[in-house]
Amino acid sequence: MALIQWGIVSLLLILAIEPTSSSRSIIQMPTEKQNLGKGGLDMYCESWKLTVETNNAGNWGQMPEKCAEYVVAYMTGEQYLSDSEAVTDNSLEYATSLVSTRECDAWVFDVDETLLGNVLYFVDTPGNGSMPDMDEWIELAKAPALPASLRLYKKLQALGFTIFLLTGRSEIHRNATETNLRNVGYSDWKRLILRGDADQGKYASVYKSEKRKEIEDEGYIIRGNSGDQWSDLLGFAVAKRSFKLPNPLYYVQ
Fold first, then answer.
1. How far apart are CA 210 and CA 137, in angstroms?
2. At 39, is the pLDDT very low, low, confident or very high (cuts 50, 70, 90)?
3. Signal among the record's keywords (predicted)?
4. In terms of residue numbers, what domain contains 220?
5. Which CATH number does the domain housing residue 248 bear?
6. What's the number of domains the chain is made of?
7. Quick one: pLDDT band at residue 92, thresholds 50, 70, 90?
8. Strands across the sheet with 191-195, in order?
9. Distance between CA atoms of 186 and 168, rounded to whole angstroms?
């Protein structure tokens, strides 16, 4: 998971993972809300989340410490699911409006926080003990499907789109990733693309652009692209339309 800046939280703790280190530092949540009442704090954190989702925050590293509980509540609550459903509805409105034979129409999906949700990894639940390394978590193949994305995935298949999965996970996780995806309902993708040896160390925006260009070079038209990071969507060989899912947990360059 190269070049990732994590802003990870538990219900009472913030977990900060530096991009070039596997070390973890635990910061105790403040007992005071820094002179902000609950309503004011939520408003502040909602505004901060807006800057993240619109990419106004740019290359941000860690969420504001005072917003940890807010982000956990959002990611584990109904609003996150509702926001994801809205993205799916917009995606399907666009997909069904296309007039095409669809023989060469492709749709690209990211995996983490797009098809699969890793909130169970990021939130340290009681009794969980020490949190496993992200690579260890991936190998467990226990990440659930994001319901809205599974609905979109199935509808796009029914419409005749060719599905490509393009993830920042490394090639060593291919078996676990395929197992996880199939276990939660995804199937019949054209290709699952993971980082090979030559892709290690590249910014996600560069790596994913290169892989999208390879898809286009095969004769496909990338009609749509779904991801939770701006680096999933921007760069070159971009899709005709791109759709960003919400993710205030971390930022990937």
1. 27
2. low
3. yes
4. 4-252
5. 3.40.50.1000
6. 1
7. very high
8. 191-195, 162-170, 105-109, 221-227, 241-244
9. 18
